[in-house]
Design a protein that fits this description.
By secondary structure, the protein is of the alpha/beta class. The chain contains ten helices and 15 strands. It has two domains: about 190 residues, Rossmann fold (3-Layer(aba) Sandwich); about 80 residues, UDP-galactose 4-epimerase, domain 1. Helix 4 runs parallel beside helix 5. The protein is globular. The structure holds NADP nicotinamide-adenine-dinucleotide phosphate (NAP).
């Protein structure tokens, strides 16, 4: 049995990672959370503290001595990071630096979540070899976190996620679909930017990919993204219709024409061919997404959304 340390347990992505780690029964899971969580499960331990407390992080890390760490914790709201740069610096860069050093000391594998936002959105369909260029402070923190992992950890993996689809599996976190569904049920309009093009991937497939990477030999940078390139407004219209609502409830916006917002990338779509070649889940993930009752994936090529 191996030890898996997962940060940001109360978040959207971590919930899927932990849920699947407990199902595949190969891992003792140590979930780190900022929020109180007293759940008891077999092979599951939740430890509550602020990751910015470096001494506590070191103490917990040394006690667990993880074989692999999945580091999801972050401040991930682009506008919040723009306006709270000290806080974003501490968690997105500082905590990653501490974890990288701790993993390097004992040769643990470190898998970190980066983002398509590291690209400026000028061309789209970025590969792992394309040069990042930050448009906002969130992207800047993620680019520097990536560099820290590459330069510090021998068994380091940078995963770049596109927009993550689906409903929360455990915990809650940053699921846009859950918020959108709540608004539509109340008959409220929802606003989505037509200028932002992404390659969404469902949260179940992402969780499976993280576990496969944690158990396997891959090191380096990898894009975890779907095969469909779609703007967020069209994606939301398709989801609304699939859920039985009128697409008229979805309002098209332009995030770069909205006063007070941090600059956003236009086309940050990602190529996923490396993941398809390297990971078993890359070949089967989209079929798994179709079967999953908790995920939704937009596929404009066929005009369908799988559920
Ligand atoms: N969701 C997306 O569409 C998307 C797209 C691209 C990249 N990403 C990246 O993927 C990762 C996971 O995203 P997500 O959607 O799961 O984010 P999320 O739901 O916002 O979860 C992030 C979690 O980070 C934890 N956290 C924040 N500050 C902390 C602190 N000081 N100490 C301890 N924990 C702290 C919180 O965990 P607790 O709730 O346990 O306190 C929070 O729930 C992030 O690194 C994000 O940048 C996400």
């Amino acid at each position: 049995m191996k030890n898996l340390l997962v940060t940001g347990y109360g978040g959207f992505v971590a919930g899927s990672v932990v849920w699947q780690a407990l199902r595949d029964r190969n891992w003792n899971v140590y979930a780190l959370s900022l929020t109180e969580n007293s759940e008891e499960k077999e092979r599951f331990h939740c430890i509550q503290f602020d990751l910015c407390d470096a001494a506590k992080l070191k103490e917990v890390f040394c006690a667990v001595r993880p074989d692999a760490v999945v580091h999801t914790a972050a401040l991930a709201d682009i506008d919040y990071c723009q306006n709270n740069q000290d806080a974003a610096e501490k968690i997105n860069v500082g905590v990653t630096r501490e974890l990288a050093q701790l993993c390097s000391n004992v040769d643990s594998k470190l898998i970190v979540c980066s983002t398509d936002t590291v690209f400026d959105g000028g061309k789209g369909m970025y590969t792992e070899d394309d040069q990042p260029h930050a448009l906002n402070f969130y992207a800047d923190t993620k680019i520097r976190a990536e560099q820290i992992v590459r330069s510090t950890v021998a068994r380091g993996v940078v995963t770049r996620l596109s927009l993550v689809m689906g409903l929360p599996v455990l915990g809650a976190g940053n699921s846009f679909l859950a918020k959108m569904f709540d608004s539509l049920k109340k008959g409220d309009q929802v606003k989505f930017p037509a200028n932002e093009i992404r390659t969404p991937m469902d949260v179940i497939t992402i969780g499976r990919a993280f576990l496969e990477i944690a158990a396997g030999d891959f090191v380096g940078t990898i894009h975890l993204a779907g095969s469909t390139r779609i703007n967020r407004y069209e994606m939301a219209c398709q989801i609304a219709e699939k859920l039985g609502f009128s697409r008229d409830l979805v309002v098209s916006t332009d995030s770069n024409a909205t006063p007070g917002r941090a600059p956003q990338h236009n086309d940050a779509s990602l190529y996923n061919s490396k993941a398809k070649n390297v990971l078993a889940v890359g070949a089967t993930g989209e079929r798994a997404a179709e079967r999953s009752s908790v995920s939704r994936q937009a596929r404009p090529a066929s005009g369908l959304i799988y559920s």
